[in-house]
Amino acid sequence: MVPAMAATADTSQNRNYYDAFSAGYDHGRDRGYHKLIDDQAAAIVSRYAAGKDALEVGCGTGLILQRVATVARSAKGVDLSPGMLEHARSRGLDVQEGSATDLPFPDASFDVTYSFKVLAHVPGWERCLQEMARVTRPGGHIIFDIYNRNSLRYLIKRLWGPRKTSRSYDEAAISTRFLSPAEAASVLPPDTRVVARAGIRITTPHPVVCRLPVIGKVHDRVEWALMESPLAALAGFYVFVAEKL
C-alpha cells in the first residue's frame, strides 16, 4: 500500500506534469511514430469494444479515445489532468476528471476498460487494475500496457535519459516503472484471466525512423506484422487483454 500522504503528493505532481505537457502534447501526433502506436492501440481495443460500452483510463487529450468512439456504442474517458481533458473535450469526447486508483463509476459499468502509457506512471498501479476490473462487466475485457523492461525501448531510455516534455518538466519529473511481462501478469486481479497479448514498438530504434521516406513505410508494415508474433515479448509497450470472469 502507498501511504496516503505520499499518494496525494504523487497525484498532485502527476497532475502538474500532465497539465504542463498538455500544451504541446498533440503536436506531431497525427503522423509518424505517435500515430502508428496510437493506431495500433486503438486497433487492439476496437476488436473488443465494437458495439460495446468502453472506458479509457488516463485518456489524455483523447487521441486513442477518439478512434475507439467511432466503433463503440459508448466511449468515455477519465484523466487526472484538467489540461489534458480540455483538449479531449474540444474533440467532442465524453470525459471527466478522476483518479485511476479510484474510478468515479459504479461496479460493472463497462464492457471494455483500457489504458495505454498510463499505468507505468501510477504508484500502486495494482490498485488501478483492481479498479478497472471492478467497473468492467463479467465477460468484458480489461486491456492495458506495461513499459517492458525486456525491450529495445528500455535500453534506449537507459542510454539517452529523460526527454523534455514541456518548459517546466522532463520525463524524470514523474515516476516510471518498467516491468517484465511475467512480473505484470503476477499482479492481475484474481477475477481475471489473460486471453490475448500483443506488442507495440518492437523494432523501432528511434521515432525518427517512421518519418524517413520509403524506410518509414516499410518499418510501419513490419511493426503491424509483428504485433501479435512471438517477438511481441520484446515490445517497448507490452499489451495484456484480460477477461473479467
From TrEMBL:
GO terms for molecular function: S-adenosylmethionine-dependent methyltransferase activity. The keyword Transferase applies. Keywords: Methyltransferase, Transferase. Residues 55-144 form the Methyltransferase type domain. It comes from the Bacteria. GO terms for biological process: methylation. The keyword Membrane does not apply. This is Methyltransferase domain-containing protein.
